[in-house]
Specification:
Layout lengths: L2 H12 L20 H14 L3 E5 L6 H10 L6 E7 L6 H11 L7 H13 L3 E7 L6 H12 L7 E6 L3 H9 L5 E5 L5 H14 L9 H11 L3 H25 L8 H26 L3 H7 L13 H12 L1 H8 L4 H20 L3 H17 L1 H7 L9 H8 L3 H5 L1 H5 L1 H5 L6 H5 L2 H11 L1 H10 L5 E8 L2 H11 L3 E8 L2 E11 L2 H8 L4 H4 L4 E4 H9 L1
Parallel strand pairs: 1-4, 1-5, 2-3, 3-4
Antiparallel strand pairs: 6-8, 6-9, 7-8
Helix pairs in contact: 6-7, 8-9, 9-10, 11-15, 11-16, 13-14, 15-16, 23-25
Length: about 550
């Protein structure tokens, strides 16, 4: 799976409007309480300190966010901000050219820049020179900024460097032990601030903090160390892992979404029937060949009835005990009813899966299992190769009593009365398919739409999962009970069937109901949503 497809699956699974944990999200604003004193300290030092100010922290610690907050919180009439990224201006010449552009001057030498700073100060504007990613600067560029920060008689800019902690050692070496800079180290977020940060990120993507459990939030905080950049990375990994685990559970335990169990049972019975047919065919080939010739000779002629009593006698005895064995060996037309009798072998598991009584299936299965494979394949396969005229008399006799064997299928069908003693046990099981059949009727379609429309718009339901096929939604509802329902919505131009659970008067009640759901359902992290939002999604 490519990263593009993985991102699409991630957004579709959680129904995000965008990736909430991307490095740059337009309109994202979050400034925790612990950073506000740092911001005030920067303003205070810029006004009263003559030192270069350095804000340090590891990658993803929120330095750029603090720099943005510093620019946004300044009085634009009293402060002229010049922001430069060192990633594109690491050498002194490029750096000075960017600063000159920010000061609206063409001259890039140090004296000209300080003169422009002095001109702005005469108009009542201080100059804030903010360098982001300052660890990328060369030593010569850092030395140039140290000199600019000292200023001269014409003017002095307030220089801020936002960089990794590695820059401090380089500044110490370049300042020759003089006190020329002041360092402010950022602190990581607390667990509560991590939760607030995640909530703001998820709210911006049309979801809420309910998407993450308390355990997941704690795990994200521990793995990230409380640094915002790491919080984004770890939170995304946690959600992707949860998505993969849920999909794995659906593929492993919920395979019925793709192939119904009744089809699997039918396929298994077919395989068993074919194997039994091959086995019985091998047995029939190993037995006496006259039996095969007897089945063939009706097509040739009517020979003398001398040998007929011997072979048919055994066949008649078999007919008294098991009719299918007699009809398959005595004449050719009779295998056709036996083929009909073999069908219950395939229907039995289908009947159970479709909700028929177990009594019918359990009675038909033992009697029909031998009938389908025992005689049909031998008669059909051995009609061609055995042209022996010696057994010909045996078919001459069956040729006259053919009307009677034609009526004999009725004894073959008499096992059906044997099916009726066992309905005593199925009634208990016969009641089970009824709810399963009723569940889809109330779970989806116009009745479900009416049910959702009739609910209090301020009440909540639990969104369990979404699937692209209605058959999957109906199967899930029928397996899990009448409290589950589903509705249809359009998502990215495609139909999406969303499964919900229950109706609750408040969000807290809905959250409490999550713990009562089966473990497999809880693994999908159901979350509460109002019926107002459900009806709106249905309408859209």
């Amino acid at each position: 799976m490519t990263s593009l497809h993985a991102d699409e699956a991630f957004l579709d699974h959680y129904q995000f409007t965008h990736d909430p944990f991307a490095a740059r999200v337009p309109g994202f604003k979050f400034f925790p309480a612990q950073r506000k004193p740092v911001l005030g300290q920067l303003h205070h030092l810029a006004r009263y300190s003559q030192l270069l100010l350095v804000v340090t922290g590891p990658e993803g610690s929120g330095k750029t966010l603090l720099r943005q907050a510093l620019v946004a919180s300044t009085n634009k009439q009293a402060v002229h901000n010049v922001v430069v990224s060192a990633q594109g201006a690491a050498d002194p010449a490029t750096l000075m050219r960017h600063i000159a552009q920010g000061l609206n001057t063409q001259q890039t030498d140090r004296a000209a820049l300080l003169g422009q700073v002095g001109q702005l100060s005469l108009t009542g504007q201080e100059v804030y020179l903010l360098i982001d990613d300052a660890e990328e600067l060369s030593d010569a560029a850092i030395d140039e900024l140290l000199i600019l920060a000292q200023g001269n008689a014409e003017g002095r800019p307030h220089v801020f460097l936002f960089s990794d902690t590695d820059l401090i050692a380089r500044l110490d070496a370049l300042s020759n032990g003089e006190e020329s800079f002041h360092v402010i180290e950022l602190e990581p977020y607390s667990e509560e601030e991590t939760r607030e940060y995640l909530a703001v990120r998820l709210d911006g993507a049309a979801q809420g903090i309910e998407l993450l459990s308390d355990e997941q939030v704690e795990l994200i905080h521990e793995r990230s160390g409380g640094w915002p950049g790491e919080i984004n990375r770890v939170a995304r990994e946690v959600l992707i892992d949860a998505m993969a685990a849920r999909r794995g559970a659906v593929k492993g335990g919920g395979f019925a979404f793709k192939l119904p169990k009744k089809h699997l049972l039918a396929l298994g019975v077919v395989v068993v029937g074919v194997a039994a047919a091959l086995l019985m065919q091998g047995r029939s080939e190993s037995t006496d060949t006259p039996a095969a010739t007897q089945a063939q000779l009706p097509m040739d002629s009517a020979p003398p009835p001398q040998t007929a009593p011997s072979a048919p006698a055994g066949a008649e005895q078999g007919a008294d005990g098991r009719p299918p064995i007699e009809f398959a060996g005595s004449n050719q037309p009779l295998p056709l009813p036996l083929v009909g009798q073999s069908q219950p072998v395939i229907r039995q598991p289908l009947a159970q899966a479709a909700g028929e009584t177990d009594g019918e299936a359990s009675v038909e299965l033992p009697e029909s299992t031998p009938t389908a494979p025992v005689t049909v394949p031998p008669t059909a396969s051995q009609n061609v190769p055995a042209p022996t005229p010696a057994p010909a008399p045996q078919v001459a006799t069956p040729a006259t009593p053919q009307p009677k064997p034609v009526e004999q299928p009725k004894p073959v069908q008499q096992p059906k009365p044997a099916e009726q003693p066992k309905p005593a046990t199925p009634p208990a099981q016969a009641t089970r398919p009824a709810p399963a059949a009723q569940a889809p009727a109330t779970a989806g379609g116009s009745q479900a739409n009416a049910w959702y429309a009739a609910q209090n718009k301020g009440h909540y339901t639990l969104q369990v999962l979404g699937t692209s096929t209605e058959a999957s939604a109906r199967s899930f509802v029928s397996q899990n009970g009448a409290q589950y329902r589903y509705f249809k919505k359009m998502h990215q131009g495609k139909p999406l069937f969303v499964i919900t659970y229950g109706s609750f008067a408040s969000r807290d009640a809905a959250q409490a109901a999550v713990k009562t759901l089966p473990a497999k359902v809880q693994a999908g992290k159901p979350w509460p949503k109002t019926f107002a939002s459900v009806t709106q999604e249905m309408a859209n």
